[in-house]
Amino acid sequence: MHNRLLAGVGHTYTESLGWRRLCRERGIALGLFANLWADKQVLADTGAQALFGFTDETARRFMSVEEARLPTSAELAPLQDFMLTSFEIAEGCRAAWTAAPEPPDAVIFPWASAGLLNGAAEWLAEIEPAARPGLVFNMLRPEPSWRISNDGREAYGDFSWFYFACRRLRSLARPGGLVFTAVAPRLARLISKAGEVDCRPAPLHKFYPSEPELAALRPAARPEGLSISALGPSHTFEKGWDLLPEVIGRVCAARPDADFFVQVRGSRARRSPVSRPSRGRRAGAGDHPAGGPVDRGLFSPAHQLRSRPPAL
User: Fold this and answer.
1) E strand or H helix at 101, and its extent?
2) Domain match, 123 and 59 both
3) Using CA atoms, how far apart are residues 68 and 211, in angstroms rounded to an integer?
4) pLDDT tens digits, one per residue of 11-55
5) What pTM value is reported for the model?
6) Does residue 118 belong to any structural domain of this protein?
7) How many helices (H) and strands (E) does the chain have?
8) Coil vs helix vs strand at 177
9) What's the pLDDT tens digit per position in 223-249?
10) Are residues 242 and 281 both part of a single domain?
11) How far apart are CA 32 and CA 140, in angstroms?
12) What's the structural domain count of the chain?
């Protein structure tokens, strides 16, 4: 159930190719479901069915269509996202379950969130207990309202919605039919404590093309210059984010033709040295890099609640 699968770029696309290849090699029947607005070529490449997504009909259940097209206030955004995602997932799972020629043994959600968990619980409640499939939820990151300390040892935020969704799932899932995984050991411990579930570390679902596939992807000629992106604005200092300016400076000193694109999140963009480049000249070793755009990220939630932080 890949409600984020839209375009032929990024992790969701390559991961879906990996799921398809793995199941084909192991003789497993895989039904893959993507977003309603997924690119046609993506659907052809992955064999996915377009299923999840928001429509005007969805919006009318929560607001007018006109209101849906307006910016959402910071106070309302978390609740609206939770409700809309819950509805989207429940509707999609309901449709897939009804259309399936036979019930699946397991339903996997590779990019889980609190709203997704609640939507899955809403759908699961409609199925007879004996017929409920096993559910697997993979957590890639903390919830947007959670904040992790720079040393990665404490978490702050509102954990109530996540706990609420996990509690529903615990009460509805068949015995042994609920699995949580997370892509990092500390994230797994946080999920376990926040949701009172057994969450285990698991490798990030990756897809590695074969050598012939890689050869076909390589450009015939080496492009001029060097372009490097530093993405993932939620990286902590523990992962070396504070070393990024020096790394960029040294690379630019060694390769004057290098250009960098750096993504920085929210208020951190104002504090980060990479957001204050010396314009109009190339960087020397130890200097802050020049000429690289700074993207402040897609998400800068202002609505935060603070509760007792669990130790990670």
Assistant:
1) none
2) yes
3) 46
4) 888 889 888 888 999 999 999 999 999 999 999 989 999 999 888
5) 0.70
6) yes
7) 11, 11
8) coil
9) 677 788 776 655 555 567 778 888 888
10) yes
11) 19
12) 2
